Structures are given as C-alpha cells and as structure tokens.
Amino acid sequence: VSTQSTGCLLLIVERQMRASTLIFALLISSIALVTAEVYFAETFDKNWESRWVKAYPKKAENADGEWGWSAGKFYNDAEKDKGLQTTQDAKFYTISAEFPKEFSNRGKDLIIQYTVKFEQNIDCGGGYLKIYPASLDQENMNSESEYNIMFGPDICGSSTRRVHVIFSHNGKNHLIKKEIRPETDEFTHIYRLVVKPDNTYEVYIDGDKKESGSLEEDWDILPPKQIKDPNAHKPSDWVDEKEIPDPEDKKPEGWDDIPAEIPDPEATKPDDWDEDLDGEWEAPQIPNPEYKGVWKAKQIPNPAYKGEWVHPLIDNPDYQPNSNLYAYDSFKYVGIDVWQVKSGTIFDNILVTDSEKEADKWLKEWEVQKEGEKKAYDEHKEEERKKAEAEKETKEADEEAETEDDKDEL
User: Fold this and answer.
1) Are 295 and 246 in contact (CB under 8 A)?
2) CB of 83 within 8 A of CB of 115?
3) Residue 22: is its pLDDT beyond 60?
4) Cα–Cα 20 to 30 A to 395, which of 11, 45, 152, 409?
C-alpha cells in the first residue's frame, strides 16, 4: 500500500469519527431537550384567579389581607408586569396554586425561580415562596401547613434581612446556616434556587450567584459526622490560665491610704446654712484624682500554661450518610404564606422546572423589564416631586391669603 493511499484512508476514518461524534452530541442534546420539563409557569394574566386558591386562616381575627393584581406605580409594561400584590397593611396573606401534575425531583435538577418587587420600600414582611407536597389542603392552608421547600427574602428592620432557604425533612424545617442578603430596594428582583442530584445547591439573585455548597454541610439535616467523646474529660490538673499575677510585683507603700473620694475643695457653705437647724456643714464628696483603684499585681505569662484543652472527637454512631437529601417524592403546589406590616409587594413570574435553559430565558425577559422599570421609576419620582412642590406652593398661598384676610378683619 502506498503512503498516499494510507494517508487517504486515515483521512476518511478521521472524518467518519468526527461525524459520529457530532451525531452523538446532537443526540444527547435532543434527549436533554425532550426530558427537560417545566412543572409550573405563572405570569399572572387576567385569568389568574381561576388558577389560585385563597385561604383565610386568620378570618376570626380579621387579619387576612386581600390580594390585588397590579404592575405597581412604575413598570416597564403595564400588562406584562402585572403580578400578585399585597394591598392591606399589617395583614397575613395566604394563597396557593396547583401544578398541572405531581412530580418528584429524584435524579433531576430542581429550579425554583420568581420575581418579587418591594415597591412599598418594605419595613417588615416576607417575600418568599413555599413548595408543597400533594398533602396540602389549599382552602385550609396556613402557616403550619407542611411544605417541602421555602425560598425567598424575609425583611424586618435592620436586624432581619436574609434569603431563606429551608428544607423540610421528617416533619422538621431546617434553615440554611449561611447568611444570604436579599435586595431591599423598590425594584423587581429575580430569585433562583437550584437543587442538584449530587446534594448541592446554588442561590442566584438577578442572575448573580450569591451562595452555593453542600446540603449536608450548610444545613443541620443530618446528625454531625463527629461528636465529642463522652468518655473524655479535661484532666483535673490541666492549667488553662494564660497569665497569672506576678509574684514579684509588690503593692506600693501608701496605696491603700489614698481615698476614692475627697471633699470638694471649691465647695463653700451656703450663706443661709443654719448649723442649729441643718447640722454641721460638710463639703460634698467628689472623685479623688489621685485615687488609682484597687491594687492588682501585673500579669505575666503562666509558665504552667498547657494551652486550651480541646475535647477529643469520635465518629458519631448516629450519623448515616444520605445521598438523597435533595430528593422529594411529591411536589404538587406552590404557595405564598407571608405577614406584612406595610403592603405593596408584587410576586410574579413563578417558574418551577428542571431546565436551566428555560430559567435563563425568563431571566433575559427580566433584564428587559429591569431597564424599562428603572426609567419609569425615575419618571415616577420626578412626578411625585413636582406634585409635592405644587402642593407646597398651594398650601403656602392659602396660608398667605388667610393671613391677609385676618389683617383686613383687624
């Protein structure tokens, strides 16, 4: 076989291999597109009430708030930006929607994404979602209803400002141990939680990754891998004082003779002081500038110091690894169950899916909304400024006219 023939043969084989690789890649992509699922998508059109069930758990106390449908005071698109809005101050809000079908996230990514707008410049209230199993009773839903996942911002004053990521396991709700700060301005922000089959998670706000890690490490769902050895105890002769009083240090002579207070040398007896009636006059006491306090020997390093005693750890017999912390067998409902002091929050664009591509598509739509919303906000604030200025001028003119009338009457 000639060298030229061999080269041609190798070229043909190489091309066939490339073609096979390309076909395989396209096949994998096609499978991914087919298997990607959107479990729930809600943009709150005019028929939203046919899909959502309101609950009134605080009816007896008259503490349930009414929901509105609004894009708010400023927006990019008057219709597209309409969402579910809280409308009454100091109320509880409870509402839920059913997924088209029940699903499990075993072996798949779970993505929960939505937008929330604290247009009222929120002072205290929740802006989170809860994802429920099929056991939820929608009409009787309340704060005690069992959920699988709770995700989203919670704000109250300056002390509570966090993004909740709570997983429920065996009837107990487990809060994330990390602190994730939410957005607290008046604009629409998009929150995303990704839970993966390898027991990891990611939290995004406005497309930026804010936190990620392991479900086992960042939640106390499982018992700790190690515990303090119950049979280990600090030795009775263990010295853990880093410093001791210097035995060579001596108290200066006359230290204790200096009083803490002395008579005020600038005080004088009042002219009307009557010793027969008031007794012998004594100057009031003031702090003695010469007083140095109780004497203490200076501290020196303790030569017997052994360091801080560390309790030995042992493997926890109650610990069992769990590769399915991420997994729930039943997802069937999404709900909002919050309390708000000042109302006005708008929930919108709720997406539950296993497709990052679908979530990114909604993210791009939010990016368009964000630009238009900022422009509308500036215009809205300018209108408010002009209105306030006009009202002030009217008030001043009315007051001036009132003053003139008073003068005429005089």
Assistant:
1) no
2) yes
3) no
4) 409
